[in-house]
User: Fold these one by one.
Assistant:
Number 1:
Amino acid sequence: MTQTLPQALLLQARTRGTKTALRYKRLGIWQARSWSEVATDVSRLAAALQQLGFSRGDDLLIISQARAEALLLALAAQWLGGSVTLLDPELDNRPLLVRLNPAFVLAEALDSVQQIRDIDQPPRVLLYLDGRGLNAGDDHGLSGYAELFTRIIADAPEPVTEAAATAFVFHPADGQPRPLSHGQLLEGARKLITRESLSAGEEALAARVFAASGQARYLLAPWLSAGFCLNFPEALATRDTDRRELGPTLVLGTRESYARLEHWARERLPLPGTLSHRLYRWAMAPDAQLFRRWIGYWLIRRPLLDVLGMSRLRVPLLVGPALSQESAAFFGALGIHPGSWQEPSVLREPAQAPAHLISHSV
Amino acid sequence: MSAITESVLLRLDDISLSFKGVKAITSISFAVKTGEICALIGPNGAGKSSLLNVINGVYQAQSGSVSYAGQTRRRMRPHQAAERGIARTFQNIALFKGMSVLDNVLTGRNLKRRSSWVEQMLRLGRAPREDDEQRRYAETIIEFLRIHPWRHVLVGKLSYGLQKRVELARALAAEPTLLLLDEPMAGMNAEEKTEMTQFIRDINREFGTTVVLIEHDIGVVMGLCDHVVVLDYGRKIGDGTPEQVRANPEVIAAYLGTRRSRAEAR
Amino acid sequence: MLYQEAGQLSTSYAAERRTFRLRQDRLGLWLLLGFAFIAVPLLGNDYWFSAILVPLLVLSLAGLGLNLLTGYAGQLSLGSAAFMAVGAFAAYNLQLRVPGLPLLVSFGLGGVIAALVAVLFGLPSLRIKGFYLLVATLAAQFVVEWVLTRFSWFTNDNASGVITSPPLLIAGWDFSSPRGRYLLTLAVVVGLFWLGKNLVRSELGRNWMAVRDMDTAAAVIGIRLFKAKLLAFAISGFYLGIAGSLWAFAYLGTVEPHGFDLSRSFQVLFIIIIGGLGSVLGNFLGAAFIVLFPILLANVCGFLPAGLIDSGQLENIQKMLFGALIIAFLIKEPEGLARLWQRFRQRARVWPLRY
Amino acid sequence: MEFFFEVLIGGLLAGVMYSLVAIGFVLIYKASGVFNFAQGAMVLFAALTFVSLLERGFPFFWAFVVTLASLVVLALLIEKAVLRPLVNRPPIILFMATLGLSYMIEGLAQFLWGAQVHGLELGIADEPLEIRGMLLSQFDLFAAGTAATLVIALSLLFNKTRVGLSLRAVADDPLASLAVGIRLPRIWALVWAVAGFVGLVAGLLWGARLGVQFSLSLVVLKALPVLIIGGFSSIGGAIVGGLIIGAAEKVAEIYLGPVIGSGIENWVPYVLALLFLLVRPAGLFGERAIERV
């Protein structure tokens, strides 16, 4: 019985070590990491973090888009019994940073490092994923993520076992830090898995940013518990084509992200007045009789689903408020009904979170 | 900052060049140290581009000699220059319009090929493995310069700033020792300029590439370069560190002043 | 709407490099080949084989030959027919004078000889560009035509200068029947198209396009213009040479210099203009157009009341329409039929979206 | 020796005829940078129209006028339908367009006037003339005279008239001339018309020589090497080139022919042109551009 995320990870590594855990695009092709590889990476990162002085109770602050590296380092921090604070690099986190005054920071790139530099008291450890335009030296304790692997001397300790230990801390704009324990996360994950009958065969699409709590609870925790594959798009600019290549079976989105995708599709639809536009209308009409549904499916809906990268989509998740009328109609016509999934305990949480804090994941 | 050694990589000796009797360059000499970033500045028509063209053999100087990496050559063809590790970009982008970003970058690596065209045509022998290596290196450059989202796009369809970057990538793909950049930031907005400056600095630091560049933006030059050479009407009127050049009265008179007024005119 | 791309992700460069990355494209190709190799021979009749399909295939091969040179390497040429002639006559003489030499081998050698001649006339391309080069290739056209007619050794001292080609025997099989000629031509053409496709996607192909798009830049990044250009002439000559052999042996059934006059060169040039410069598929489309268009026109005129247009006039009308079409293509679709196909395919991939 | 000079001069005079066709090229190339392969077709069209009009009982003068008019119309159409849509396209595309054009014009000419051979009598006796012991064709002399006057006329047109001035401006720098308000389309149409006129003259002379028939359009192939030697952009070059080609051709035919065989006049000019190219890649009078990068 696994109590914590790192334990869940180790369990996956033991039970289906060779299966793919992560998939991301590097150097132009899709790279896959198996569960056992991920487990080793995390344990080594944990060892490295420990050498840097990170220990139980410490907090690792991550300002990054959804990137495999960020995810692994987060798990490493939790392995050591520490907690992780996730921030959205797109936002201006300076006020928050001044308040938190973090000791351990992973910043994705120059602009997020800039945000850190503005804190009068620099962090003990400042790691970066992407060194473009940074020159080491002018920041105290600045070092690259890659370097972590190079200077490991000791092995990592056994991972944390207390289910009560805090895994993530989220900072909504209302100021109340909202901690999430390993226990809560795994519990929520189990609920989700049974409700949506998630299997290890799912192909999940990872969020753009982890910053919103929904990410951690409905994607990361289930990923570790169910042991499916987590896919990362190569870049923001290419996420839609990447989604099509990946063809995920599980996506997690918010009202905004579904709306974004809907608009992306709508502005590319055939122009009104053209024959293909009429065909589209005809095929998308709700409650048509069988024959028409069948034709419409093969001529329009099936190809459209494929272009949207949803032809294999099985579980469309939604955090936060329900979809807008037209989004619901659009995806409904395609047979996609993003169900809202919320735990009683934190029923109003996502709704409260201001829009700018809600991640865009689809 | 970059690791500047004392060894001289490139030395121009009394170079003169003229087209149909019109003097473009008059007896210019200067030296570029290994690992430094050197800027050629000067008003339009000062002969900066022509000088680059002499360095990598597009033009043949009427008199004077270019010594590079210890060897002195009277005349050198462009592809010889490339074989000896000189890569460059052009003032008005000289990309291969009919090809994708990736293909453009790959052409930059044509000198690293060992397998014959027959092997490549039949996809036999070392060709496939070599294709992989070529692609891998090209991709590292593409990611280094952050153009991976446009990998498969025809360069003609890209924005001006991106095209400049692709051209830089193509030059970089050849793993050059000396990189000649002809106005790498011309026509860019402030943001693109800072980006490009970072790229050049990082190239110089991470690949140890020596860079000679032509740039009009004095701010950029002073911030980026270790060594500045000032030309005016085909003559050298200043040569030294940014500070020295800034102090040089002749330069201020002949160049900075005019630039200022021009800059204000913009 | 045929495309289902979800999950077709490439995890290796080899997979990314495939000529047809998408499963659906590969399937389509195999279906097409199956149709051409199995269905057509069963369904087609002799008229179709010998009057339409064979010339279509041979011309598309010739088109590819010229396209490599003009469309990819950017070297203008009007000597295509000359190189075809060299190939044909070389193959014929090899058959004639080297007893027991397999037919395909003599085709190949014919191609090699054509390649050598092409290189000879390509030499000026090292110094001259564009229209000046055009004239150099025209020289090839006239010199070759003259040599072949002047020295009867090439035509085996045949009085008329027109020689019937030997029967098409390959490994004991006789391909002399129209169906056989079709299959032989198809096999050769498909093979050479495959090689051509690989070639233009390889290093050499990229270098060619670099030379075409901006030769100064190409030289500056270390491409040897001489080598690139001469290879372009050689390989183009090789393709044209083999096309010539097929033209003489499989289509005309006779070997004669006048089968390869200047108008043939123009025909090949038009094929690549209409089909699309810098495209492999385009050569096939262009050839199909060139071969089918006159037949179509003749049939259309067949419907008109008799005597309204006599055959002579028909020829003139054909000429005018043809010229008009060339111009129309250059104005409306400079990248030719191949571009139209690409657009269609692109649209099909994102259907029902527009882009 | 006598004989040699006879041959030489005969060749030179014949060369004048090549020059005539070449000049048509040069005009168009200078003004619109188009390598006009259709020049030969225009020669055919002009000659064929003229002859057919004569045969239909037009007096010489009116036949000439009407033909000229039709050529002007043709020029206008070409400018509208071909040049304007293709403006700013690479030269190779324009060249290919003129290939299509030549097909159209040839087709049109034969569609209108039929394909049979017409004799053309310009009323110049073609009996040889004895000058200082050398036999020279009277017709050739006449042709040379016409060419000379034509060239003078053209040079006057170019150097003395406003049109000519703007013409040269366009030739030097189309954009700049646009800037100073020269209307390019007008100029182009004009140039094509003038080229058509030159073509008409050439057509008449050639027609009287060979009879007016389809093969006339092939004189274009004679003109190409002339251009190579003379350079695309120089009328003087066209003249000189024509003379060189004409002379070389005849001399080769007489002295080389017996050795290596007849029918060499087809390719001798080209080989000659090639040799020239290897020495002077831009022709005798053409300018070599410096590549700016």
Note: The beta strands of chain C are 163-164, 169-170, 173-174, 254-255.
Number 2:
Amino acid sequence: MIPGVTLELILYTTALGLVIIGLAGVVLSSHLFRMVLALVIAEAGANLMLVLSGYRWDAVAPILLQRAEQPTMVDPVPQAMVLTAIVIGVGIQALAVSILIRIRQRYGNLKRRDVAEKMDAEIAASAGIRRDISQDAPLGERPLSPLPAHTAESRGGDA
Amino acid sequence: MRNLTGLLFAGGLGFMLLAIASGIDFGSPPMRIGEAIQSASPQEVGAANIVTSVVLGYRGIDTLGELAILFAAASAAGVVLGRRHTTTGTQRKGGFVLFHGGALIFPFLLTIGFYIIFHGHLTPGGGFQGGVILAAAFFLPLLARPGARLHHSILSVIEAFAGASFILIGLAALAEGQAFLQPMLNQDTLGSLISAGTLPLLYIAVGLKVGAELASLLSNLAQTESEQ
Amino acid sequence: MIFSLLDELLIFSAATVLVALILGRGLAVGWMVTILYGGQLLVLLKMAALGYGGNPIASELSLSVMGQDLSWRFDALSWFFALITLVAALLTSWFSCGEWERKFKQQGGNVWLFHLAMALNVFTMLILLASGDLLSLFIGWELVSWAGFLLMAVAGGVATNAAIRYITYAVVGGMSIFGGIALVYAAAGSLQYEAILIAVEKMSTGQLWMLVLLFGSGFGIKMGLLPFHLWQAAAYAETPGPGSAFLGAISSRMGLFAILLVLVKLFGIVNIDSLKIPFTLIDARDLLAWIAVFTIIFPTYTALKQNDARYLLAWHGIGQGGYMLLGLVTANSLGAAGGLLHVLNYAACQAALLMAVFAVMHRTGAADLNKLGGLVTRMPLSFLVLLTGIIGLAGLPPMNGFVSKWLVYRSLLEDGMPLLFLGTIIGTLGTILSVYKLIHNMFLGQLRVEHEHVREAPWSMMTPMLILAGVIFVTGLLPGIPLTWVAAALQTIGLTGPEITLGGIESSSGSLDMIWVIGVLFAGFGIGAVIFYSAGPSKRVHQLDNYAGGHFLTADVRYQYSDNFYSGLMHLIRGWYRGSFQWLENSITSLVEFLSLGMQGIYRRANSEFYLLSTALFIIAWVVF
Amino acid sequence: MNNLVLTIALPLLGAFLLPVLMRLSQAIGLWLGPIILGYGCWLLGNLWFSDISLPLSIAIGGFDAPYGINLYLDSLALLFAFAVQLLGLICWPYALNQDTARRQALMLLLVASSTGLALSGDLFNLYVFYELAAVATFGLVAASTTSAAYAATFRYLILSGIGSVLTLLGIALIYSHTGTLNLAHLAQLAPELLHDRLGMTAYLLILIGIGVKAELFPVNAWVPEIYATASSRLSGFLAGLLSKLALLIILRLLVLIFDQPEAVQIVLVLGILGVISGEFAAWRAKDMRRMLGFSSIGQLGIIFIALSLPDERGLLALLALSLHHLVIKTGLFMLADGWGGSLERLTGAAKRSPVGAALFTLFALSLVGVPPLPGFWAKFTLITELAAQSEPLYLIGLLVFLLATVIETSYLFRIVAKLYSSAETTTNQPEHQNMPGLSLATASLFAITLLAATVLIAPIGDGLQAVAAEAKNAELYIQTVIPATPGGQL
Amino acid sequence: MSEVELWIALILGIMMLSSAVLALVVKNHLAAVAAASVVSLGLALLFALMRAPDVAMTEAAVGAGLSSLILALALRRLGLWQIDSGRENSNLLSASSKGKDDA
């Protein structure tokens, strides 16, 4: 084995690698379903990291046996936390895909950009913002609006 | 361009995190509370599986929160997907193996699930793992016979009372003048099935809750009717 | 708890607000409110000792909020400003009673809201004037700003736009003051005047500069000092009649009051004098003086261009503020007295003028100078009031404006500041030209057909106007009376006033006695009249007996020389009207719009996770390196 | 004082049982939630006036901190916990439709988790409650059942999911370095173990993760779309309270564990950016809900600036600003119930709903900080404190804050002017402007609170000062939670 | 720790990382789900290696089993269920490719 490469190094590289791949995946995917997958992968990485934080290389699993002498055990607390985290993760994932199903039904596809645009359009439409005016067009009324023509005339320019 | 920047950024972040994490002494954690729990747990909680005593004892409210999250996710999925009691015609009938295998495997899964739940305080496994298996047990027939449907009302009653009983067990301790979720009943012999006080009860509640929650989630996903 | 006189005044004022609020929908609310203003004025007069150097009167009310002590008290300066405020409120409210109200209601105006806004303005101004520390000053300041906003917005429509513009400027000013207060608090650890006076001694030049700039621009915005003057004309002009007269008379002067209190009293003219602008010969005080002079010149000449009587007067009012500031920053006895006296004189003139304009508007429905003319035969009393007002405003004897402007000129000459003096002379020239335009286009020349049957303004409007005209004349004849108050007020901010006689001032370098001046003037008029009437009968012709340019016009074609008034002069000075301030304002607005577009762009990007990633990267990189 | 835990346990219990109860008897089901929340209010309100000496620490399950999870109750936590229960009651989803049971259950979960966020003294437990709040929020937003709501929820879910991964990573880093999760225990260990690059990294990861909910600048892109699609009551709860609770976590971290200047500076910089981005974006917003969303980003930015102030008065400013924003924003969102659409449509709306317009004006005035209203005092405390700092970055913060106020005035009063404008537009669609009576009544409640606070500002100010002093006292926190070992190591 | 454990961890780590990448770049959604479940399975094995049997069981049941089931069900509902590598264009590296509808 290559010197310097320890089990811990492999493990935390794997953990961080998973998180980063997941993160990059979320940022880069153009398809919403892949974003869910990426999130799942990132969560896996975080879970690994958490277990790793309680891991001892010289210890056994934290289960008491009817023996006189108890050997050293790994830290049980992170394991309990990871149990929680895993279940949380799957709950969120299930919710995410159910929302995806609805989005797919309503918008017809799951392209990230497309969905964002359609959502924007729908929000604008439901707010009653006229579509013929794009979001980028000036509001037409400024807070310091120039006075209407008849007064502007008499007010004149100023020095 | 965006792809490249994203990759670069992610890579940079990963590199920095790696560099920083290399400062940690992995493999020999400080275990400030871990060791204390290990030594105190047999007396305080009495479960052979220390993870269980942490999950249900020391960090019991985390578990409660987690059950609530599952419940929230299932409810939210229910809100999103709507609960349709009709089956969809689009699903193909499951294959022969799935159909009969499912029928065969159902009691088997049920047994395993409950076994894991009941032994949660002794051996690895417990409410979560057992609950998932229970969910699978109830879901398999659905996959095998698309026409079948889960009894949602029964499921939701289980869901409700399993969750409620977890809290009620906790509240019972409160009513006794102890702290919320404080383990009660006597602990008995470490390592025997009837031991660790209320912990097995809690795990049963967890198992049923997780099972019911996941089953309803799965069936929701499987039975959603297309709106189009 | 025993109420002090100040408490009585404030309670009275608050009660006025309540009456306007609760009974405002009923009949004759105007009269009720007017009487209540009169009551407030009476209470104020009970405090008259203040005007002659009496001890300050404190309010029993004091609060401590979040470690800040708040207190209120009245001294001679406050009393002087409060007197002007309440007289203006009383007369303008009187003006609004009866006929004006009725017509306002007919045109869809909300009389209830109008009276409420007026009462609120008066109340908040009194609170501001009564402030006993910097924090209560700021509270009063903001209240006045927002009450002013309410009054300006009452009319709706164009007025709302003007009001929004005003409040934007006012909040900019308010925030600038707020920032200044924060810095003062950081330096002094308290906002009590005593603590600040001590802290100012220890401040570095940089700090002092910062504070002078922050407070100066903050208060200056309310005064309409030069780069910040754009909001004022439209906001005042579009306010409903009496409100416009009230705001025009006193509102901006709250800025002057605050400048006096903070820049002069707290920071001290000496300290401000010591703030040199690097690489130039001028210091902060010169800067203020020059700003004052330009504030006199530019808006006055802008006023010259206006064709709407209200706008003309409103623009004009901005310019007059410059005289007051100029007089006060000279800070010698004559100049300071002149500047402060001008507050009163100007208030009287401006209120009288605006009332006269609104009286004409009430009868004719027009404020456009090109659509008026010849009304002297129909509304002679209004003409008289307007005439009194413009003589006062232009600074000519025998009216009060002469006294205050004379004092300011005199102080400039004495201090050896010929350039500033020249500036004021140019300004005065513009004033004379523009007020002449006003009176000519409204009252002189030919009467228009549609105005044949116009009657004199109703007495409910005429009486306050005549009272004001009387005030203008009396304070011109006997400037000693207000000058005594002015001297007492100056003492409270650490300046000394001149020697005062009933008819003017006594000074080693040259005295002024208005009784003599006016005596000589009227003697001159008498001689003129004798000559006029002894020269034999003059021939009267009908007003429509036109003869122009060698052509006989038929009687139905009116020849009214008002359109493109002063065209020659305008042509000459056109180059100066580049609208650069307007341009500045527009470009700031565009900048905000541009930025806001960009910021919305950030939030509308499809990929929000990217932000998360990059932030994580950058801030962790920041930690690592 | 063990029954404090009821404020978390009972809503959870109610949520679990609600779907079944609702099927048994709708009447019982409909009353269950409000009764539970009312009881929570009563319990916490009683605590406030009782003679129990705060702060106190409650060990859950009888396992003393730092081994078990504890609830830490000081005045600050009590204040927020009470606000959660009360606001939960006020923003309760009364509307009946086919999902009533689920929505009410989710709301109960949201309240339970928010209370937990206010009270919990354990890092991982906070994370669990945070996730619960997130999931409940997703469900409630998605309950609007519009397509846009689904899309917005999904985007929020992913962003928040990534945030939780980072938070979890941060927690793992902290745990691997210290071996504990209890905040008080961490506070004891922090000077020795966490004031280094690693601790800082962990803090930043948690900050970004939690920041998603707290509307921290670059991770708040969900805000406008969620507030535009969720129901107004929910938006009010989220903007008004949940963001503050996330902030509270960051506050606890800063006070107890990461009291280093760098930790605070990041918050300051992001806060400043948040103010700029939020207020400028709001300036051009064309519909009420998104305007409120952007404005809430700006306000939270200001609160983050206050969070970065090092001393007690800074915390006072933070508290005052938070509570003020809570009242105002929730009130404004209530008004958005009727006026949620395009701003153009609001022209002349004051005629149809004079009370609504008056309330809007009042809220706007206080938001801008017009003196006698409480907003002024909050802002005053903030700026005097900002000016007192020697660090130039704080002066930039001051400047940005003042600028933001101007912009805020500009856009808010443009709307006020529109409300009172007499001109009718052609695009006018009056059916969108019928203000629901319930929302109006709720908004009036907030307005009354605001006015009462205006009158009672002096005692409130003193009370908040005491709360701030208590919350700023890290030593007190440690002593309360781990009394056995005064200042020593475990 | 033994040499064997090290090798196992190394192989598992490489496998997990590569299937994680695969899950994001592969064109077929079903294959992506499968790759993701490989990650979970590897994780479960790693947990077992790290003396965390509870976590390992949970991860195997929840991560590898349930989660894959959910995703697979979702794929059906989303109409992305395709056994053969189709003409899907929705993966990581095709962000800028011709925008075919993915339905």
Note: Chain B has one domain: 2-223.
